[in-house]
Design brief:
This protein is mostly helical and 558 residues long. It has three domains: 8-190 and 260-440 and 473-503, Growth Hormone, Chain: A, CATH 1.20.1250.20; 201-259; 515-555. The protein is built from 20 helices and no strands.
Length: 558
């Protein structure tokens, strides 16, 4: 099945299950975003637990993404995306039964395994159905799905938390998931696997998971504050950081020697792939870090309820959706992308810098403008980096290439949330000590109620700021505003890095050929060349050019 033999209606039918699956994935993530402070508070978690509830999902998503991408080159893609959906929704529903922060973190980690599959496979299957040049024509549909999930999710989650119970946040996507599985089974007919021989790089999977996990545990747990498990300069730091580096080196060695590497390092010879990876890491840090802590800012620094926080973050979501849909259509119409992506990285950096100036009483109109700029920057950049890589990747490496960019974006997001969360926890801990006299005076004025609040502060559990008395709430809001603003500043240099990487990307025009058409055209080209006596016959499963003969110029990008 390819775009050349499919009518617009057939393409829409093929995309319907995929769109619903993406909706389930996004809804399950966004519906809890504004409720996390309340969830972590109810489960007795501290700021480190809040960070790990988010980081655990991002970590396993990052690790699982290249694995699913490689599997998509080897096995039936429809079966894989259905399996990923089952894992994702099953773990999400199980998270609703969590009795403490540890259980929630564990189920969220399993959720990330399924999320990695949905992220990687949706990109690969879209490339099977729609050419890079025509992708923008359908961006309105993806924009509508994103709008419904990213706008409706936080509002629905906040409403369920305020009116009923936060546990319903984890159950609401189940009916949609069942419908998505049925529709995928009926409508989706993806291209067959591009490899005949099935080999899975198990050793590479273990080494990658070990390296990334040790690095993030170290970043989150180390520090000099009383809440940290160990210091920056300690034997635990040496073991974890050294182990992460060693596992990373061994991973590179294994990938170079593997017949079917998890992450084909030869792809880094392609300048487009390498620079897109660098930009994706930086965008992931800026995107995930700011979006996670913006919700916390609304509740911890402005005293909003979960429902109010969902409404207050709409400017960022609106900027992301409008920019992604409008820019997607412009790219599809004109076939040029570089100016939009460069502009997106600039807006991301400016938005992150402005968000780092926030106070608890910053005029909300200015906060909305800052969020709008950040959202527009991410919307112009995020998916287009995957599109650029798919445009130049070899058809038989499409799964690995697509998931490679998504993996590094998730990895960047995981590192970003971990580093920003660790910085926030350290800053808040320091500020609570510095403001101890002010807090003590405010608590004393409340009598017995103040003593109860003070005892809760001593446990380290995240406070429910919207329910604190005004005299205490103002101090707590100021503390969290300063800590969150300082963490936003971390995203700025990475946004600058993404701008530099995108600036040097080769400006290759987008092809109108789907993945299967490119593979067939390349095989036909090789067969013609062989028939003319130019070379021995080449097996269809061997390396092939990425474009039809008339498009070979676009391959010379590094």
């Amino acid at each position: 099945m390819n775009n050349a033999t499919m009518s617009h209606r057939q393409v829409l039918e093929a995309l319907s299950g995929l769109l619903l699956g993406m909706f389930v994935s996004m809804l399950s993530g966004t519906v809890v975003s504004t409720s996390l402070p309340v969830i972590v508070h109810d489960l007795g978690g501290d700021q480190a637990a809040f960070t790990w509830v988010v980081t655990s999902t991002l970590l396993t998503t990052a690790i699982a993404t290249p694995i699913w991408g490689k599997l998509s080159d080897l096995f039936n893609r429809k079966v894989l995306i259905q399996l990923a959906l089952v894992i994702f929704v099953g773990a999400t529903a199980a998270a609703g039964f969590s009795q403490d922060a540890g259980m929630l973190i564990a189920f969220r980690a399993v959720q990330g395994i399924g999320a990695g599959g949905l992220a990687a496979l949706s990109q690969v299957i879209m490339a099977d159905i729609i050419s890079p040049r025509e992708r923008g024509r359908y961006m309105g549909l993806f924009g509508a799905v994103m709008a419904l999930a990213t706008v409706g999710g936080p509002l629905l989650g906040g409403f369920l938390t305020d009116v009923a119970n936060w546990r319903w946040n984890f159950y609401v996507a189940i009916p949609f998931a069942i419908a998505a599985l049925i529709i995928l089974q009926i409508t989706l007919k993806p291209a067959p696997p591009t490899r005949d021989r099935v080999r899975i790089d198990y050793f590479g999977i273990v080494l990658l998971a070990t390296s990334v996990s040790l690095l993030l545990i170290w970043v989150t747990s180390a520090g000099d504050s009383a809440s940290s498990w160990f210091g920056w300069w300690s034997w635990q730091t040496a073991v974890m950081l050294g182990g992460a580096v060693l596992a990373g080196i061994l991973f590179v060695v294994v990938e170079l020697r593997s017949a079917e590497p998890l992450v084909p390092l030869t792809m880094f010879r392609n300048r487009t792939f390498t620079l897109s990876v660098l930009a994706s890491i930086a965008i992931g840090i800026a995107m995930f870090g700011t979006s996670v802590f913006l919700s916390q800012y609304m509740q911890m620094a402005r005293g909003a309820t979960p429902t109010q926080a969902g409404l207050m973050t709409l400017p960022m979501i609106g900027g992301l959706l409008i920019a992604s849909v409008v820019v997607g259509n412009l790219i599809s119409r004109y076939g040029r992308w570089k100016g939009f992506v460069v502009t997106g990285t600039v807006l991301t950096g400016v938005g992150a810098a402005l968000l780092s100036t926030l106070h608890y009483d910053t005029n909300f109109f200015l906060v909305s403008v800052y969020m709008l700029l950040m959202g527009a920057g991410v919307g112009m950049t995020m998916q287009n980096l995957v599109l650029i890589v798919q445009n130049t990747a070899r058809p038989e490496d499409l799964g690995a290439a697509s998931s490679g960019v998504t993996f590094f974006r998730s990895l960047g997001g995981t590192i970003g949330v971990s580093v920003m969360g660790a910085a926030l926890a350290s800053q808040v801990s320091t500020l609570f000590v510095d403001r101890q006299a002010d807090i003590g005076k405010a608590l004393a004025s409340l009598g017995k109620k103040g003593a109860e609040i003070g005892a809760q502060f001593q446990t380290g559990t995240l406070p429910e700021v919207s329910k604190l008395p005004d005299v205490v709430r103002v101090i707590v809001e100021d503390i969290y505003a300063q800590g969150i603003a300082a963490s936003f500043l971390i995203a700025v240099p990475f946004a600058v890095l993404s701008f530099i990487a995108v600036l040097f990307l080769p400006n290759v025009s987008l092809t109108r050929m789907t993945t299967r058409e490119r593979l067939q055209a390349s095989e036909a080209d090789l067969a013609t060349y062989s028939a003319e006596g130019g070379m021995e016959a080449v097996p269809a499963t061997g390396p092939v050019p990425t474009q039809a003969p008339q498009s070979r110029r676009s391959r010379r990008d590094g």
